[in-house]
Amino acid sequence: MNQDELKQAVGRAALEYVPDNCIVGVGTGSTANCFIDALATMKGRIQGAVSSSEASVARLKSHGIPVFELNTVDHLPVYVDGADEINRQLQMIKGGGAALTREKIVAAVAEQFICIADESKLVDVLGKFPLPVEVIPMARSYVARQLVKLGGHPAYREGVITDNGNIIIDVHGLRISEANKLESQINEIVGVVTNGLFAHRRADVLLLGTSKGVQTLK
Ligand SMILES: O=C(CO)[C@H](O)[C@H](O)COP(=O)(O)O
């Protein structure tokens, strides 16, 4: 199977975790898109979805799946999303698609986080993928200097504005051994909205697409 087929396989496999009649949390990116397409096949059995990005809202609506505002929803049994990197503790780097803040918010509300990924995303140590940080625009230079003090090499992601009207700084050169600590340290920098480390709220289940089939890690 090629990478696209692996993404489709994990997107379909995630349907097992979606209870009947629920509102489901939906992530962002090419793997999450495969989940949305699979979800369309059971749209008559769910109430609808809460989305982590405008792009996913558009894809959900194109399938006729009702989209709810998160503030109107008090129970979200499951959130399904991809990752840029994930380790065996199910801690992740996310935000390659610049949707990290809304992803973290929806994931915080959900009871279960199901990560769907092809096998290229599984790593021993997080940090080869540059860590995305969402930043208030006027704080860009200050935040970059603070990220250097933490040992990273920040790069402004030019031309990208998040759904929240902010910018993204990608931090290169990190080898993340204490993900919880680094997530908190970066979030303490004034001007940071959030960073793409999902260590405090890690995944509960990883559905990993491999050449031998979909493996489940918990
Ligand atoms: O965090 C994300 C978007 O902000 C995505 O989940 C992450 O970038 C993975 O995307 P893809 O499934 O396209 O590889």
Automatic annotation (TrEMBL):
Keyword Chloroplast (UniProt): no
SUPFAM superfamilies to which the protein is assigned, alphabetical: D-ribose-5-phosphate isomerase (RpiA), lid domain, NagB/RpiA/CoA transferase-like
Superkingdom, natural source: Bacteria
Keywords: Isomerase
Gene3D superfamilies: 3.30.70.260, 3.40.50.1360
Pathway info: Carbohydrate degradation; pentose phosphate pathway; D-ribose 5-phosphate from D-ribulose 5-phosphate (non-oxidative stage): step 1/1
EC number: 5.3.1.6
Catalytic activity from the UniProt record: aldehydo-D-ribose 5-phosphate = D-ribulose 5-phosphate
PANTHER family per UniProt: RIBOSE-5-PHOSPHATE ISOMERASE (PTHR11934)
Record family assignment: Belongs to the ribose 5-phosphate isomerase family.
Assembly mode: Homodimer.
Known role: Catalyzes the reversible conversion of ribose-5-phosphate to ribulose 5-phosphate.
Protein name listed in UniProt: Ribose-5-phosphate isomerase A
